[in-house]
Amino acid sequence: MNGSTNAKASFGAIRGLVFIKIRELTTPFALARSGAVFGIALVLLGLLAWGSDDFSERYLGLIRGVFALTFLPIFCLTKGGETLRSEMKDGTIEYLWTRPVGKVELFFGFYLSSLLGCFAIIYPALLGISLVGLIQGAIGVSSLLLLWVTVTAVVASFAAISGAISSFTSKFVVFGIFYYSFVELGLGAIPNGVQRLAISYHAEQLLYGLDGSSFLDGTALGYILATGALGLAVGASLFAKSKYVVGGEKES
């Protein structure tokens, strides 16, 4: 009976964290912010297309080099641990400590909450980028599907890594940038298999198919998702074994 009760409590905690984030993301301010992100992406890409004879090439280059391989990693690595650390800093996690909920389930709930926050910014921008590409004939429907799948996997994985970092330090933004510099830029540039440790390397392999030459590299997608799953496992383990001062920062 206790097992059933605890399972329901754990699910309820996860659902509650997700519900709170959804409510936060559907406020007038949050919706206006998402609309602004969509509009900015639409205008910027539209200006790029204006009077451009090589728009398709420049469009694909921006998606790969700027949006997917630079902006996404930095944004997600500095935002993915936000919910957990906000709960710790504000002391609102105190209520959750009094519930029959495991720390692993709590960590997963924090991760989903932060992931929704990332998607609330990324998806409107991606929608604007996609519309310009379709209107200008720079990208086809099948390539757009590949783009959305790749972006979703990349965001989920980097957010998981950020969550893992936030499980042991409040300075997850600093460590996230360090991770990006060392792993994604450093190790990702080393040949002979070392570059496979970087999510960006596999994302780049997937995005090569945006020109229609291929649809989906299952191996590259698998590497990205596996890295994210490893980040979740490590983060959940660290969070479960750590001791925290209720309403404050980590004790040890």
Instruction: Summarize the helix and strand pattern as letters.
Output: HHHHHHHHHH
Count of alpha and pi helical runs: 10
Radius of gyration: 20 Å
Q: Which percent range fits the helix content?
A: over 70%
Q: Could you say how many structural domains there are in total?
A: 1
- Unreliable spans: none
Structural class based on helices, strands and sheet pairing:
mainly alpha
The beta-strand count equals 0
Mean pLDDT: 84
Shape: globular
Task: Sum up the structure in keywords.
252 residues; mainly alpha; 10 helices; 75% helix; globular; transmembrane helix; transmembrane; ABC-type transporter activity
What does this structure look like?
Keywords: Membrane, Transmembrane, Transmembrane helix. GO terms for molecular function: ABC-type transporter activity. The model has no long low-confidence stretch (mean pLDDT 84). This protein has 252 residues and is mostly helical. The longest helix has 33 residues. The chain has one domain. The two termini are 33 Å apart.
Summarize it:
With 252 residues, the chain is mainly alpha-helical. This is ABC transporter permease.
Indicate the topology.
Elements: H1 2-25, H2 28-49, H3 55-77, H4 82-90, H5 94-97, H6 103-135, H7 141-166, H8 172-186, H9 199-207, H10 218-241
Helix pairs in contact: 1-6, 2-6, 3-6, 3-7, 3-9, 6-7, 6-10, 7-8, 7-9, 7-10, 9-10
Keywords: Membrane, Transmembrane, Transmembrane helix
Transmembrane segments: 30-52, 58-78, 106-139, 145-165, 172-190, 220-240
Organism: Pelagicoccus albus
